[in-house]
Amino acid sequence: GLTLKREQPVEITDEFDVQRLCAERGVMYALCQSRQEPGNLLVVAYNVRDGRVHLQNFKTKLCRDIAAVRAVDGKLLATGLFTTDLTAAPANPADPRPALKFYDFRRLRHFFDYLGPGKEARLRDRTDRREADELSPLRWHYRLLLHELLPRADGGYTLVAEVYYPRYNYNNLSYAPALSNYSNLSVPYYTGAYSNVAGRAFVGIRTTHVLVCGFDRRGSLLWDNTYVVEHELLHDQLEEAIRTITLPDGRMVL
Questions:
Q1: The organism sits in which domain of life (predicted)?
Q2: Distance (Å, rounded) from C-alpha 148 to C-alpha 131?
Q3: Tens-place pLDDT, residues 17-31
Q4: Distance from C-alpha of 144 to C-alpha of 222, rounded to nearest angstrom
């Protein structure tokens, strides 16, 4: 059997279960989640070259689901459904880690470009009026498939995300689609509600447009853009439908 040149025992309490594994350039990562406190996450990093092990604990208010874990230049990206108080001051003011940053879709300059000038203007006017009247904000029901973060030469990152929704066929006259409040604005979100689920047949996953954002090394948004998929792009399962190519001059092609 295989033996390690150097082994280091790691004490992990029984409350943690391994959820996802990933690796990058000689380092293996394990993301563990507490059964007692789902928002309590533990990352274990193992260096296969020298046998060193590093543990780091992260706490969110709630962690409902962990979909995937990816490693990019020593940073671990966990994709899933999390909640935390983004407005709270850091518990330790001396903590060198940057604060979390939240970017609402409406704050992106080009996210709604796919709607066309008229529909986009009406949507932004509606959200501005709700904000002025101090009403609850509109909820954006978009599904995004995140690609691997693309590191740039200046230390920043480029994020590519595909906006998609599931398509169904219905063969019953009692069909009653439940669209979001933005259905008249052609927002591609479908709840899939139907009075007779047996009459609903899954067709595939349709990619509607692609969001591309540039961030600096501290996670501050530098720019964003949106590219519409003009021809119907349909897959039988959720997978990356768009490929990215980085040119020698730093530009990216989709």
A1: Eukaryota
A2: 34
A3: 888 888 888 888 888
A4: 20
State whether residue 30 is helix, strand or coil.
Answer: strand
pLDDT tens per residue across span 135-171: 887 777 788 888 888 888 888 899 999 998 888 887 7
Among the listed residues 81, 70, 80, 222, the one whose alpha carbon sits nearest the alpha carbon of residue 158: 222
Q: Compute the distance between CA of residue 32 and CA of residue 13 in angstroms, rounded to an integer.
A: 11
Q: What are phi and psi of 54, to 5 degrees?
A: -125, 130
Contact (Cβ atoms closer than 8 angstroms) between residue 108 and residue 102 = no
Token representation of residue 45: 């990093």
Structure token digits, residue 42: 């533990």
Annotated domain spans of the chain: 1-100, 104-254
Per DSSP (E only), the strands in the chain are 16-24, 27-34, 40-47, 53-59, 62-72, 75-83, 143-146, 150-151, 157-170, 200-215, 221-235, 245-246, 252-253
Distance CA 118, CA 225 (A): 18
